[in-house]
Design goal:
Chain A is an alpha/beta fold. Helix content of chain A is about 30%, strand content about 15%. The interface of A and B includes residues 159, 450, 454, 469 and 474 of A. Chains A, B: This is Fungal lipase-type domain-containing protein.
């Protein structure tokens, strides 16, 4: 039995969306996007399999693990492919964008994975990855916890301008509760902010990308945490109410999303306030121009949890806006009512889960669990529930990856993107035409087989940012003033009148 | 009682060198180099103190530790001093070079430390440090264990051309015995050498430096090991004979120094053969030109042990050559006969020892020792004995350094150089005019107080040497062909005829 399989959450109510946010012409789209050999696995089988995974804590040896005879040809190809493009061609998907965004719950295009969908998923995953790559983790920096670049430079610095989006706003978060390691803290006294962290950004597709994808796409990318094992230990397993019904979500996630304090510079308004204000402004601006608009919210780990809270709030606030969540390695966020409400409001969620990754099993399963605690755990399992469609990835499917126990590696977003890039279907081996640069996997972990000779955790600054000045002394240069976080430029825009937005110029001529 | 003190080994025979290799005019030199307030501590006091150190495993709280009220002024000065020179001025020491090189066993110029001597010590320490800074530790590199640059580029790449020396040869070492972590090994199959490591270099002063220091100075710098704790565990406590008398030295050190194998590319001759051949050639060349010549051998940790073996062999082989050893954090190497022979041959040894560093206590004391094992240990203590003069440094003396337990930090060569730069005498606090860049201390450890905001272990390549090519793929670029180790250029020079040496051009016009 193949373990890498497409399952939707077994608690999901039958597919009858009350709100159809997508207004799609489904028949026409299916004609193009349906795969001839698509299959719909028996629902009971899927449920049994899912329970079996829980019972065995997903450590049952995979039959596919035996396929892992290391493919030297593949490696030789890898070396020869140093001069090939890292992405598939950008095809015009404007006619099919609703289905790709999940209007039909990604039925028939996940297994096998439709190439157009794969490309869009990787695009959103790269936005989520950007929130890690540009983050200042240096606890000796006065800017620890901020983004190293201003929003106009972000994509250029990370080589992401090719995706055709423009960042319109940075989002900052704080928390009123003690969440060790959820937020980064500078060791130094005169820091840019004692309380806040850069937690993500809002971006919007430029004109060219908008033409290609058939609508103006607003993206929100949420940053995750470096040490999910540690934040997990601090889970309070306490559910706080959200919205007007029975929906409840995990206390810590909601605290990050909604905390604010008048005494701070960057969180006089909460992350929630900041992101919603920006999204509402953008939606209004483009709708008034007569454009079709979509909202895609993405994040990895904690970022996936924040994405879901954000989607919930956006769906409550903005009617008739197609909202999709693309999450990677995200934990459970709320109770069944939360899931049901999201579903009823037509929010489409696609969750990517590496089956060896523990984070998506949280809250609900503890590390080092013994089976005697299973009863207690199923209790939690039924309290916190996953939302939407799931695509299961398997570390064993890639000939490039080590399969030994490696929790940070299994959870790493770059591992996810690599596996998505190589995923064809549950039935087929790793995609030989996978184009994403394999070396990226080892940026912050040690997952690639030694034969590839890619150093582990190689993503690092020369001399940690120290430079030798003309006198021969090693100093940390002052940050470019443009890149110093400025709460005035981000936060003090209280006017809601929709004059010409400041980002408009860059959209017109990116 | 000040714990930072100048002691000579209590087993040393009275100062009556049988060979005077220095031909110095001592009276004249003392007139200049004597410090007015120099003192000669009572010999019995020193012995008692030394034993007391051993008994308390040197963990007795230092009275000077209480002086460590963190000096914020000093730090402010440090920040303001980013644009000051990192070295004292180069003064002409040509008249006094013999005393600086130890012809009088550094009597009267160690406490207080004479500024001319300090400057020379730091110069030699920088040569030893170069063997770490340029070493390729990347186990995924096919050149792991080699120097990253060819010898013509080495000093330029490391900013050491200002010292006025030219590298004439690289030295490679192997070992016939298993010494885990003593030598670095590449993980890859097609490596430059399966057996050998770059273990140091021979350099010679250029004309300008030669004029300043009063003689043509040949330097041999030996590389140490990264993990002395680990090599220590593998100490076999086995002494091998050396020379023609009763001298014996530690088996592992001698194996590194003298192993060779016809099946290798870089060690068809041993490190001993390579270095002696080069030194003999240089000595002969410059003596035939009528120049005065000195040999200075330096090294840190294992490198200090190899320096002593090298000095022993050079003294046996080359008559009337002033030979000095400047070692940092070096372990004991041989028995009393070895020490006595070195002394009789007129080899001058100056050992720098940080009192919190454990490595100089090896072999002879084990980590985590309990006092009940002391009897057994004193046995070893009397077998392995230190050689020459010692200058004790104290981590607590520097306001820049953390004092918490930090074995790698206490042993780091950059910590040694920092403490030497700040050392005035046993009676005075850290030198306020110390010029060496404090940031260097944290290159490969975490010893600087947090207030300085210098990242720990900051000496690193951008992205571990990976670069993004024009196709957006991260690749490790091929090494510059000039920097690929070539056994032909280093080793295949079997002719001993002293025609024009290949390095001569660069010496004449450096």
């Amino acid at each position: 039995m193949a373990l890498s399989t497409v399952t939707r959450n077994h608690l999901m109510v039958p597919h009858q969306p009350i709100t159809n946010r997508f207004n799609m012409v489904q028949a026409q789209q299916h004609a193009v996007l349906d795969h001839p050999k698509s299959k719909t696995p028996n629902r009971a089988t899927r449920l049994a399999e899912s329970l079996s995974h829980v019972l065995h804590l997903n450590n049952v040896p995979s039959s596919r693990a035996n396929h892992k005879n290391f493919n030297l040809d593949l490696l030789r190809d890898h070396e020869q492919n140093h001069s090939t493009p890292t992405m598939s061609p950008r095809e015009n998907i404007s006619e099919k964008w609703r289905e790709i965004q999940g209007c039909s719950d990604w039925e028939n295009i996940l297994d096998p994975l439709h190439p157009w969908l794969r490309r869009e998923i990787v695009k959103y995953g790269e936005f989520a990855q950007a929130t890690y790559d540009a983050f200042d983790y240096d606890s000796f920096s006065e800017y620890c916890g901020s983004c190293r670049y201003n929003r106009n430079k972000l994509f250029e610095k990370l080589g992401l301008t090719r995706n055709g989006y423009v960042v319109t706003r940075y989002i900052y978060a704080m928390s009123h509760i003690e969440l060790p390691r959820w937020l980064e803290r500078s060791h130094v006294a005169d820091t840019w902010s004692k309380d806040s962290n850069w937690i993500g950004f809002v971006a919007v597709s430029d004109d060219e990308e908008t033409r290609r994808i058939g609508r103006r796409d607003i993206v929100v990318a949420w940053r995750g945490t470096v040490a999910p094992c540690e934040w997990y230990e601090d889970f309070q397993r306490k559910l706080d109410p959200i919205g007007h019904g029975d929906a409840k979500v995990e206390h810590g996630f909601l605290s990050i999303y909604s905390s604010k304090s008048e005494t701070t510079r960057y969180n006089r308004s909460s992350a929630s306030d900041q992101v919603m204000k920006e999204v509402i402004k953008l939606v209004k601006f483009y709708k008034e121009k007569g454009e079709e608009v979509s909202l895609t919210i993405t994040g990895h780990s904690l970022g996936g949890a924040l994405a879901l809270l954000n989607a919930y709030e956006a769906a409550l606030t903005i009617p008739n806006l197609p909202i999709s969540v693309i999450s990677f390695g995200a934990p459970r966020v709320g109770n069944i009512a939360f899931k049901d409400e999201l579903h009823q409001m037509g929010v489409k969620t696609l969750r990517f889960v590496v089956k060896q990754d523990w984070v998506p099993k949280m809250p609900g399963l503890l590390f080092n669990e013994s089976l005697k605690m299973f009863d207690e755990l199923t209790g939690l399992e039924w309290v916190y529930t996953h939302v939407g469609a799931e695509l299961k990835l398997d570390v064993h499917s890639s000939p490039y990856l080590k399969s030994g126990m490696n929790l940070p590696g299994f959870h790493s977003l770059e591992t996810y993107l690599h596996l998505i890039d190589g995923y064809l279907s549950t039935e087929t081996p790793f995609r030989s035409e996978a184009r994403r640069d394999v070396a990226l996997v080892n940026k912050s972990c040690d997952m690639l087989v030694d034969e590839l000779r890619i150093p582990h955790c190689w993503y690092q600054l020369a001399n940690k940012g120290m430079v030798c000045n003309t006198h021969g002394r090693w100093v940390k240069p002052k940050r470019d003033p443009d890149d110093i976080p400025s709460h005035t430029s981000e936060v003090c825009n209280h006017d809601f009148g929709f004059e010409m937005p400041t980002y408009r110029m860059s959209l017109v001529s990116p």
